[in-house]
Design goal:
This protein has 231 residues and is mainly alpha-helical. The protein is built from eleven helices and two strands. A hairpin with a 3-residue loop joins strand 1 and strand 2. It is globular and about 55 Å long.
Length: 231
């Protein structure tokens, strides 16, 4: 073993005690992130360390590491004397989120011709869930179906890295949806757009699907920005 190799190995050995805790913290962060995506956690909601630690059966240090990860993702905010709470996106956040989504989802959509049938079915299934949930007036599930639709679009690229990135972006965006008022008024206009995109893809109209997705993003960005401005 060279002295250089021994040096970095020795440094890693000192960090081994943090590995299990970090791994657990990432899993805890994923659980909280999933609840944000499901619409169960609202912006501004304080997160009680003891209550969460007891619920998840993790140590305070592990929970704080999970909080740190989610703060880095802009899902949580830590304020001195107030503790940790769920963050509320502002106009700049929304514009930046949609800029990123146009690149990621727009690029992934072009992978439809070469995507697996499983990946294509996930797009169709998300549309079907949105339609059936709207008929039942289950608008929380409509919101979840909308999230799944855009995750499925991204998954067409077959990249685990893009899947993780869009999950983080959509979780942050879901926080903004909470301030949009009546969820039926917010989501009702996007159900037919999702179906239109899916129909174009199934009919071989890739360019038409791209145009419909671009129109979706333009409408949605303005809708959310206007909603934040008028709250």
């Amino acid at each position: 073993m060279t002295s250089v190799e021994g040096g970095w190995l020795a440094a890693l050995a000192k960090d081994r005690g943090d590995i299990d805790r970090s791994s657990t913290a990432e899993r805890v962060a994923d659980k909280i992130r999933t609840r944000v995506l499901d619409g169960a956690i609202e912006p501004g909601q304080p997160l009680n360390e003891k209550a969460l630690g007891d619920a998840l059966r993790v140590s305070r240090n592990t929970l704080r590491e999970a909080f740190r990860l989610l703060t880095h993702e802009r899902l949580l905010v830590h304020e001195y004397s107030k503790g940790v709470s769920v963050r509320k996106p502002d106009r700049h956040d929304i514009e930046d989120l949609y800029a990123a989504r146009r690149v990621i989802e727009g690029g992934a959509l072009r992978c439809w011709p070469d995507a697996t049938e499983k990946a294509r079915s996930a797009v169709r299934d998300a549309v079907a869930l949105g339609l059936s949930s709207a008929e039942k007036e289950d608008w929380t599930t409509v919101g979840t179906a909308n999230i799944r639709f855009h995750q499925a679009i991204t998954a067409l690229a077959g990249s685990a890295r893009l899947d993780e990135e869009i999950k983080r972006l959509l979780a942050e965006l879901r926080l903004a949806f909470h301030v949009m008022g009546d969820p039926s008024d917010f989501y009702v206009g996007y159900i037919p757009l999702n179906r239109l995109i899916s129909t174009h893809l199934d009919n071989g109209g890739l360019r038409a699907a791209e145009d419909a997705l671009a129109d979706y993003f333009d409408r949605a960005e303005k809708h959310v920005v206007d909603g934040l401005s008028g709250e």
